[in-house]
Design a protein that fits this description.
- The structure is a single chain.
- This protein is an alpha/beta fold.
- It has twelve helices and 16 strands.
- The termini are close together.
- The chain binds zinc ion (2 copies).
Length: about 425
């Protein structure tokens, strides 16, 4: 019997910790090491999906595979109430692992360098904790193992394949991501947490010729250089100082020999911002500048400008963020909850929150710092931000989260689901 004088978040926190402690932690760690050793690229998560499906079915959870490619959806129905969707991504990256871990990748040039193996294992662990603790909550949990986050295609593919038509509509969506930073913390941000991003390919069409006779050519390298320079003025001169935005040209290829003016030049851009409006403004400016520079140089053909990948901004719902952070504060202690502010990385998680009728459901996405304490303490830098830049980050070949983050993450997600679906502990 629980004391009825305990306030609800404290009672919830206690229940969440009990449920998380009762899940099969050894199995979660085994699954994590296995997934880490066998990473699969975006859209090819066949083995991973099979493992998720088997683990969910072992808990008696209804499971559908092949949703949006290799996506897996488990539905844990547990009486009347709201529906919470919990999402983990499954894909790895084309990175050659250099972590030195005993369970390092066995696949050449492919690595779980973004920790999606940990997210997948934590999803399965959370499902187990919730399935075994059904008497503590009421409602429905939709468990989503999503393919292809890194390419920005997976969430859209699941939505297009009827995620919201074939499975219960979510009232709230939750996701978590490992990150650099000392293990044990949970990083919660209200409002914008991750940037909108777009990847843009540009081909400038000039006229090639001899390097000694530029007057007979239209030099695409000079046009490209002018474009690169002018693009820098978008953030500086067209975006309000209160907005956060980035325009980077990460790729500029042209030419084959010193004495040949090539016919074309290729540029690759990445654009980041923290709102849909700002993103639209930047994309319009990029198009205008690229076209105008080509015209200014007298290029005969219009440039090709193609948005090859785009992800929306991730904007956490204030109510859900506060509700989840309150339970995490009771679970882990107030000194473990930090607010790092928005980051300029991007995610496709928020695509899952968009319903077929155009409505968006509230969601919350938080970070689980996972740098082993020994690595964190040995990193140069006196301030946490300085150290943050000196420990292996996601997407680097030596990214090696502390496996203790698995139990931490199962507890954090279990607590978050209970925060939304628990039976009122006072009434129980
Ligand atoms: Zn990533
Ligand atoms: Zn990631």
């Amino acid at each position: 019997m629980r004391s009825t004088s305990e306030n609800p978040p404290t009672a919830l926190a206690r229940t969440a910790l009990e449920l998380a402690a009762a899940h099969d932690s050894a199995a979660t760690h085994r699954l994590y090491r296995e997934l880490h050793a066998h990473p699969e690229l975006s859209g090819a998560e066949h083995r991973t999906a099979a493992r998720v499906r088997a683990a969910l079915r072992a808990e008696g959870i209804d499971c559908t595979e092949g949703v949006g490619g290799t996506g897996v959806v488990g539905v844990l129905a547990n009486g009347p109430g709201r529906t919470v969707l919990v999402r983990a991504d499954m894909d790895a990256l084309p990175v050659a692992e250099d972590s030195g871990l005993p369970y390092a990748s066995t696949v050449d040039g492919v690595m779980h360098a973004c920790g999606h193996d940990a997210h997948t294992a934590m999803l399965v662990g959370t499902a187990q904790a919730l399935a075994r603790g059904r008497r503590h909550w009421s409602g429905t949990v939709v468990l989503v193992a999503q393919p292809a986050e890194e390419t920005g295609a997976g969430a859209l593919a699941m939505r297009d394949d009827g995620l919201h038509r074939r499975f219960p509509l979510p009232d709230v969506l939750l996701a978590q991501h490992v990150s650099a930073g000392p293990i044990g913390l949970v990083a919660h941000v209200e409002g914008p947490v991750l940037a909108a991003s777009a990847s843009i390919d540009v081909v400038v069409h000039g006229r090639g010729g001899h390097g000694s006779r530029p007057d007979t050519t239209t030099d695409p390298i000079v046009i490209g250089a002018a474009i690169v320079g002018r693009l820098q003025s978008i953030v500086a001169r067209e975006i309000a100082p209160r907005e956060t935005a980035v325009v980077t040209v990460g790729r500029f290829h042209a030419g084959t020999a010193n004495n040949v003016i090539p016919a074309t030049a290729e540029l690759g851009l990445t654009v980041r911002s923290t709102s849909r409006e700002c993103q639209a403004r930047i994309l319009a400016a990029v198009q205008r500048i690229v076209r105008a520079e080509c015209e200014a140089a007298g290029a005969t053909a219009a440039p090709d400008i193609r948005v090859v990948k785009s992800m929306p901004a991730t904007v956490n719902d204030a109510r859900v963020a506060r509700n989840v952070a309150a339970v995490h504060t009771r679970m882990f202690g107030g000194d473990r909850i930090v607010d790092p502010g928005p980051a300029m990385g991007s995610e496709d998680f928020s695509e899952l929150a968009l319903l077929p009728n155009g409505q968006t459901r509230p969601y919350h996405y938080w970070f689980l710092p996972s740098t082993p304490l020994a690595v964190w303490n040995a990193a140069p830098g006196r301030s946490p931000m300085a150290r943050f830049g000196n420990v292996p980050s996601a997407h680097s070949p030596d990214f090696a989260p502390d496996p203790a983050v698995l139990d931490h993450g199962v507890a954090a997600m279990t607590g978050a689901v209970l925060a939304e679906l628990a039976i009122d502990p006072v009434k129980r």
